[in-house]
Amino acid sequence: MVVVNSKITLDYDNKKEVILNMSGQRKKNWQTLGGIPIPNSMGDDKSGIPPYTRGIHGEMYRDRLWTMRQYAGFSSAKETNERFKLLLNRGQMGLSVAFDLPTQLGLDADDELSLGEVGKVGVSISTLADMRELLDGIPLDKVSTSMTINAPAMILLAMYVVVAEEQGVDASHLRGTIQNDILKEYIARGTYVFPPEPSMKLITDIFEYCSTHIPKWNTISISGYHIREAGCTAIQEIGLTLSNAIEYIDAALEKGLKIDDFAPQLSFFFNCHNDFFEESAKFRAARKLWYDLVSSKYSPGNIKSSKLRFHTQVAGVSLTAQQPLNNVARVAIQALAAVCGGTQSLHTNSYDEAIGLPTEESATIALRTQQIIAHESGAADVVDPLGGSHYVEYLTQKIYDGAMEIINTVEAKGGAMEAIKQGWQQQEIHNSAYKHLNDVESGERKIVGVNVGEMEELSKVSAMKVDMKLGNIQTEKLNKWRQNRDNALVAETLDRLSKSVKQGENLFPIVIDAVRNKCTLGEIMNCLKQHYGTWMAPSGF
Residue 176 has what DSSP assignment? Predict the structure, then answer.
């Protein structure tokens, strides 16, 4: 790797390709296409100051564009690594890792419950060797990485830390995010493993450890995305997500942490759906609401503790298998709404995701959509371009008020955790999803290609397929991994982990040791299961 003029280059196949512009330098003379001068901000309510309705940074994208972080992961670590390098070469600014279902559930690829699912919806990671292969040739001190992982988040982050060590990168220099949001798994998604209380302990252990050892890492991405994908409204997405965030803060404070120890590294993950103005207003409302909540409840000393920073992904549930090329327009509208709403990071879905895994072509079009918005649309040339619109300001206030009402309701039920146990959030989402389905089926809600603009389709988009032999390949790799390690050291390490669990210690340091000593993902998870057990939601939730 070499660095030239603040641009990182990697040498693939003896060809140097620029993968990431680190300077962040943008225009100096801000004008419209027709030459009209563009002021930084319109009106008296400036960005970069509380309550951050107009943005958390004074210059927003005029100073630095959002991170273009395409979500990718499929099949083997090697294939996913190749996709990462392709996207980085084409202008992606950061990595976002999708893990397969067994990995999300903390299962090794050779577990009987993994049969038929290895590598299907993401990359298969069972060992440190898999993580090495996933990140091969990628400079972890230069690229930030987001990992969508929850129940086994501590273990995957430990693998990332050890691979960085092997690259000679100290953990204090690592930048990125782990999702690590188990509450929304209970509410809307389902890849939880442990009961709520031990799950919260694992999360706050990560908060505590990272505050000292990995200070640039975002220790949680509190997700409204999956709640929205399950069928809730924009107001519910904000209200339920911020309720979960309050629960995490309270758990960390109860552990003995101070608000400014961890709150600056809290991040959020939101959906962006089809209603352009509502979605832009949603992000504006969320920033103000979070500032008001944190300031009034916790009185932080660090101004960063009350700034809502968020990643956005456009709505997967809005993509249609019917006339899939129409999804290009949907993605563009949603991405533009996120930019006008002030997101810090953005993923644009590929048009073929309702059919299968994104192809190289569709993933490139998705990335190019962001680049066109950034460099051609003018939306990034002024802070909060929709601010001051009567309609957008009206929607911003309505979403703020509705979300606050939800937060108050959750708190009256004893907080997000207690409400989850009662099934309240789950039922609210189900009711909204049912109403939306009825509206579509009745024709009240129009969806092009589904209930309006229908036509007989003459061509089909080719779907990318995962090699069904991958499970066998991963099993063979695991067998060799176990044969070529010090199994006595593995047993001793897992015994130390077990003792640490019993003593209530912070588990992150011993989990890092377990990864170094070649314990597998499944072995570490099984050790935790022996003490914590597993959890199943009450029937009907």
Answer: E
